[in-house]
Amino acid sequence: MKNKVNYLAIIVFFMIAVALRYLTNKTAILDGVHHDFLKAVLQGAGPAVGAFSVFALFGIKMQLTLQGNYSKLIFPALLFWVFPIILILAVEYYIKGTLSGYAVFTILVYGLLEEIGWRGFLQRELKPLPEFVNVLLVAPLWFLWHLNFEFTSSNLMFFGILVLGSWGIGKVANATNSLLAVAAFHSLNNFFGKLTMANLIIIAVLLIVWITLLVVKKKNGLKKHQSVTF
């Protein structure tokens, strides 16, 4: 287990992530990109590019994978991507008679690109620190990356969400080691800009199913460990 934090790698990661965020969100560099999916991917790619850069530059091994500690990739794919896509589209079709599958998939990919950086690199790199210190370092950097510095109540609430998210998604990362899982939890906030009753029900269903299965997974893991130990 690593016992030192590579702060230089963190600085390089964050500089790359912020620089790309600024270029893609605060300048006209993407004005010529008319493909919505590609534009969204480029706007959220900074943390992933930063992470892969420091992995290469500093010889850091990425600990999270798409499959994680599941026996097969199909399990986290079905649970954390296929299930929410079907649920969200089914509710949308029932209420509005429309299907926004493309938008839902785009949000998941956007969340995945962010999580490669925040959980795949940063939160893992800070793991030697106490958990509350880890969270209180990740959340402000995550907030600053958004380049939204207005001192408003909504921004304060957003910062609080990022603190809670850094703690909660960190727990998911520790439990699954799966980028698909952390991207799904991350994307909940992006899916539902307006908290309608339907959206609240979807969020509740997803969280209940996901958390229940994570608890079961953890208990099964402990039982297997105990059986091997004894």
TrEMBL record:
Domain CAAX prenyl protease 2/Lysostaphin resistance protein A-like: 103-192
InterPro entries: Rce1/LyrA-like_dom
One of the protein's GO biological processes: proteolysis
Membrane-crossing segments per the record: 7-24, 44-61, 73-95, 129-147, 197-216
Gene Ontology terms for molecular function: endopeptidase activity; metallopeptidase activity
UniProt keyword annotations, A-Z: Hydrolase, Membrane, Metalloprotease, Protease, Transmembrane, Transmembrane helix
One of the Pfam families matching this protein, by short name: Rce1-like
Protein name per its UniProtKB record: CPBP family intramembrane metalloprotease
